[in-house]
Design brief:
Blueprint lengths: L2 H24 L3 H21 L3 H24 L14 H23 L11 H8 L1 E4 L5 E3 L9 E3 L6 H9 L3 H35 L1
Antiparallel strand pairs: 1-2, 1-3
Helix pairs in contact: 1-2, 2-3
Length: about 210
C-alpha cells in the first residue's frame, strides 16, 4: 500500500470524523448527536489502525465505541426533551467555552505546523528500523542486534509496530493490572455520577413544573 493512498485514506477518514464532530455540537436531537459521536470515535479507531497502532485502535473500539456508547444511550433515555434538547442561552458560559475551544484549536495548529515530523524514510540506522518495523534480537548486554541466519528462533523479537498488541496486553494484565483496574473503577464512578446528576436535575425540573 503506497504512502499516497494511505494519506488520501487518512484525509478522507479525518474529514468524516470532523463532520461527525460538527454534528455532535450542532444537532439539537440528542440521540442523533450520540450516534454521530459514536461514528467520530470509530473514525479515530480507523486512523489508529492505519498508522499501525493496533492496540490503541482496539482500545478505542472497546472502550469508546462500545462501552461509552452504550452508557451514553442510557444517559440519553434520562434526557427529558430528546428531540429538541435543551434551550441554548448565549451568556458568559457560551463566550468562555468558545474562547477555550478556539484557543485549543490554534494551539494544536501551532504544534502541528511547527513540529518537524520525521518519516520512516529518514531513518538511516538499520537497528532502529529493525526494532520498530522488522525483527531483532538481543545480545548478552541487552543491546539490539540484527537477526541473522544463526539467530535462534526463541531470541527473535517482533518490532514495536509489527505486533504491539501482545506485549502491551501482557504488561497491562501482569505488571500494570492494579493500575488498569483502578482506572476502570474511576471511569465507572464518573459515568454513574454523571447519570445520577442528570437524573436528579430532571426530577427537580419536574417538581418545579408541578409547583408552577
Amino acid at each position: 500500500m503506497s504512502n499516497s493512498f494511505i494519506n488520501i485514506f487518512l484525509i478522507l477518514i479525518a474529514s468524516i470524523g470532523t463532520i461527525c464532530s460538527l454534528i455532535v455540537v450542532m444537532q439539537s436531537n440528542v440521540f442523533r448527536s450520540a450516534i454521530a459521536l459514536s461514528f467520530n470515535f470509530l473514525c479515530v479507531a480507523v486512523v489508529y489502525f492505519a498508522i499501525n497502532a493496533e492496540f490503541l485502535g482496539t482500545v478505542q473500539i472497546l472502550v469508546y465505541v462500545g462501552a461509552v456508547s452504550v452508557l451514553m444511550a442510557f444517559s440519553v433515555l434520562l434526557v427529558k426533551d430528546l428531540q429538541t434538547g435543551s434551550t441554548s442561552i448565549i451568556g458568559v458560559n457560551f463566550f468562555v467555552s468558545t474562547f477555550i475551544s478556539l484557543l485549543t484549536f490554534f494551539v494544536l495548529l501551532f504544534v502541528i505546523f511547527s513540529t518537524d515530523w520525521q518519516t520512516v524514510d529518514k531513518l538511516n540506522e538499520p537497528k532502529i528500523k529493525a526494532a520498530l518495523f522488522e525483527e531483532y534480537s538481543l545480545n548478552e548486554n541487552k543491546n539490539i542486534t540484527i537477526v541473522s541466519k544463526e539467530t535462534p528462533p526463541k531470541e527473535i523479537h517482533n518490532g514495536v509496530y509489527n505486533n504491539s498488541i501482545i506485549p502491551i496486553g501482557t504488561l497491562l494484565t501482569t505488571k500494570y493490572f492494579i493500575s488498569l483496574q483502578l482506572i476502570g473503577l474511576i471511569i465507572v464512578s464518573c459515568v454513574i455520577g454523571s447519570i445520577a446528576i442528570t437524573k436528579n436535575t430532571i426530577e427537580n425540573d419536574d417538581e418545579m413544573e408541578e409547583l408552577l
